[in-house]
Amino acid sequence: MTERDDASGVETERPKASTRHLAGATPAAKRVAGARRNPSVVGYEQSAPQWLRAMAGWSWRILVVIAAIALVFWATAKVLLVFIAVFLALVFTAVLRPVVNGMSRVMPRGLAVALSLIGAVLVVLGLLTYVGFSVAGQWTRLGEQFNVGIQAILELLESSPLHLTVTNEDVQGWLDQAQQWISENSSEIASQALSSASSVGLVFMVLALATFCTVFFLSRGMEMWGWFLNQIPSRMRESWYIGGGVAWYTFSGYTRGTVIIAAADGVLAVIALLILGVPLAAPLAVLVFIGAFIPLIGAPLAMVIAMIVALAANGVVNAILVGVVIALIGQFEGHILQPLVMGKQVSLHPVVVALSVTGGTLVAGILGAVIAVPLIAVAWAVFARLRHVDPPTDLAQLETAVGPPEVAAAPARDDDEE
Q1: Which residue, 5, 38, 69, sits at the end of a domain?
Q2: 155 vs 142: CA distance, rounded Å
Q3: Which residues of the chain, if any, have pLDDT below 50?
Q4: Which domain holds residue 246?
């Protein structure tokens, strides 16, 4: 609708009569007026409380995230061997990358990669050879000591308050039963042996694929990362670049730190076992080294096995000393080595580590226990780096503005009731 100004002769548009009175009204008044004209708006806005609408919004978002995680787990289970090979390749790359970077300063990078891989293989084969010769050299003496130790354990059980009597005839009966069970289930054992042989073939295949990927990760890793960044939209490249850098920094720091700590634990364990005169010190030290890669449960299992060997070979006192020494090594690792080697690269609370290891074990067994902590550490590091955190709350300022907690918790009073 238009109207003419008598003074200027200019026609101007006049607002409708239904909205003319809202020209200077507040937004709340406009909503009320709109609700009066359209009563369905009131029912739409007030049909559910605000907290329920907020929870519903968060609920469907959480369901989408859970579905995405479940899809990732399902896809990983379908190509589990490929996932293991890539994970091992990343571990090898994290350990060897500093060596390759140092050697590439004085020689071509391809030659540095080849020499570092050959050196790593020689070190592993040397350790295995040393362990094999030590086991072969001490096996006969260990068998004799084991028989003596078993007899001492039986006597200890008999003289204990429980008075558990186990005679040599009982032991011989158990051995006869085991031999009979083996003869009755020989076909199943043979089939399991064949499946184990195929599993060994799969292990070599995974190692070959991991080595192949490691060569390219070490030689052309940055080029592969740059190619990947160029495949995503330009507006997202900075976030992916920052997140990828944080993820690799955390993963490589955790991997190298774990290898250094495991090597230190193995060296300390072999020294302590040799001093205490425990047979098979080298294989037990290797077991301690491997157990260090499984947080929380690896080291205790290695300690129990070492104590059993010491108990059977040298008696109860020696077994207790072995347990005390390995417990001291664990304390040295947790309070000195880990803060010194890893620093703040992997800052996870012990409760988070325990839950991660337990959940990983329930989902994927030993493999899950090994990879759970580094994956959780990487995910948390990326999330902490990319999120936007509000300033921390000062409780003193809140108490000044709102009042003490008991005052803030009191129900508000309606002024109309007064």
Answers
A1: 69
A2: 20
A3: 7, 17-18, 20-22, 28, 32, 35, 41-42, 44, 416-418
A4: 232-387
